[in-house]
Structures are given as structure tokens and as C-alpha cells.
Amino acid sequence: MSTTHQSDPANRSRLRWRARRGLLENDLILTRFLDEHEVSLTDDEVDALTRILDVSDNDLMDLILARKEPDGADDLPHVHALLMRLRSA
């Protein structure tokens, strides 16, 4: 059986650490989102959040504010779905 995000406290801790951002606005949005939804995130949602966290702070803000959409390898349905949740948080 493979380890899932929810079954591995170390994975959850790493995700929360990666959500800490240089831009205060991003940090507040991501922290608030994780405070409310972290325990219910599926592995697909964790993958989407990980992909979103790989972008620069300015690009992340543009994604959250819907000034741009994911492209390239990140243009996936589960990434768009998680962005919609972040935008409404």
C-alpha cells in the first residue's frame, strides 16, 4: 500500500512549510486555506497544491487573483479545481 498525503504527518508538515511565502498576501491566503481544508485534501488536491506552490510568488498571486491560468504541464483539471477553491477561500 502506498503512503498518501493524509496518512503521512511528515508530508503534511512539508506541505504547510512550502505554503509559507514571501508575499504576505499569498502566505495569508494559503495559511487560511490549509487551516480550513488541510485534513480533507485528497492526494490529487495535494498534487495540485504542490504544483501551484512551485511557481514564483508573483505568478502565484496572479493565479489566485485569476489574472492568469495554469499553463504547460500544470494545465490540468485538478489544478484548475484547486485554484477555484483557493479563489473562493
Question: How widely separated are the two ends?
Answer: 33 Å
Strand proportion: under 5%
Helix tally equals: 5
- How would you classify the helix and strand content by structural class? mainly alpha
Which regions contain 5 or more consecutive residues with pLDDT less than 50?
A: none
Measured as a percent range, the helix fraction is: 55-70%
Rounded radius of gyration (Å): 12 Å
Mean pLDDT: 87
Largest sheet: none
Order of helices and strands: HHHHH
Approximate shape: globular
Number of strands: 0
How would you explain this protein's 3D organization?
With 89 residues, the protein is mostly helical. Helix content is 62%, strand content 0%. The chain has helices at residues 9-18, 24-37, 43-53, 57-64, 77-88. α3 crosses α5 (77-88). The longest helix has 14 residues, at 24-37. It is globular, with a radius of gyration of 12 Å. The model has no long low-confidence stretch (mean pLDDT 87).
Topology overview:
Elements: H1 9-18, H2 24-37, H3 43-53, H4 57-64, H5 77-88
Helix pairs in contact: 3-5
Quick structural overview:
The protein has 89 residues and is mainly alpha-helical. 62% of the residues lie in helices and 0% in strands. Helix 3 (43-53) packs across helix 5 (77-88).
Characteristics:
single chain; mainly alpha; 89 residues
